[in-house]
Amino acid sequence: MHRLWHSPHVDADGDAEISHSVIKMAKLLTFASFQDFLLHNQEHMEAHFYAYFHVFKLLPRLRSKEAGVFNAYNIVDEEGHQIIALHVTGSYYLFSFGWTAPMMDLLAAQVEVGKCKPNFQFLGQRDLILELLQKHECQWQIFKERLVYQCEEVQGQREIPSAQVENGSLEDVHALTEMTLAFDVDEYPDKPSRDEDKAFGQVMYGIENNGLFVVKSQGRVCCVLQVIETDDFNKPLLGSLYTLPEHRNKGYASLLLRTVTRGLLQHRSDVCGLLSDINNPASNKAFVNVGYHPVYHWVNVIIN
């Protein structure tokens, strides 16, 4: 794997010492080990859990050596701005809530975009990544662009007399598998193949762990939603929200989202999150109406 950085390799057994390089009022913070990087950023990342969800999701793969860490560093300035960068096998994760031109220059000096092989990915803060890529002559495409939402209090309350919210059950496993596959088609229209066994396994996991919820009307499933567990963080993430085409614009998705979110906030957590396709205005409007508010603009870019 080619390297995209100039600072020392991250050593899992290194010391906790941090080195600083200064360029035009921006500082590069490098770490003796990946664990030091995590410890340094842990409080900030956990405070913005849903923005960093993909990093938390990545950690088990790094611990099991399925993916390797090539570099992990921060770029900061004296006013408290920071960029958090993590380069792993095949991907570069870049996050920030605000940066300056000198910080971007320093980031561009670390990431040799021109040496990226085809299908290399950049994931994280949309504007940061696009600004970085526009500094280099290379071809790239946006694979997925999302708004990250979270909710602390549900808004509104609308009942639909003909609809009931229930836990997903084994009697509907076939229909739920078909809906999961249909959601996958809507979410990733350019994906070359669908894995029915994987969809079935996802449905069964949701049913067995009481994490899959549906709206039924006249005994038939119309809408489905799955709660994604986040291990020890107790910050549930809602996903795979899908309504059958013939049952759309009836309020079923909002009913399901509102009911499940309210239950989670009352009994499990003080916050819920979800990731939304930015190109689906109807869904984004529904999320806001239920009480979700955007907290991050996320993108996944692939080098051609």
Automatic annotation (TrEMBL):
<dbReference type="InterPro" id="IPR016181">
    <property type="entry name" value="Acyl_CoA_acyltransferase"/>
</dbReference>
<feature type="domain" description="N-acetyltransferase">
    <location>
        <begin position="171"/>
        <end position="304"/>
    </location>
</feature>
<protein>
    <submittedName>
        <fullName>FR47-like protein</fullName>
    </submittedName>
</protein>
<dbReference type="Pfam" id="PF08445">
    <property type="entry name" value="FR47"/>
</dbReference>
<dbReference type="InterPro" id="IPR000182">
    <property type="entry name" value="GNAT_dom"/>
</dbReference>
<dbReference type="GO" id="GO:0016747">
    <property type="term" value="F:acyltransferase activity, transferring groups other than amino-acyl groups"/>
</dbReference>
<dbReference type="InterPro" id="IPR013653">
    <property type="entry name" value="GCN5-like_dom"/>
</dbReference>
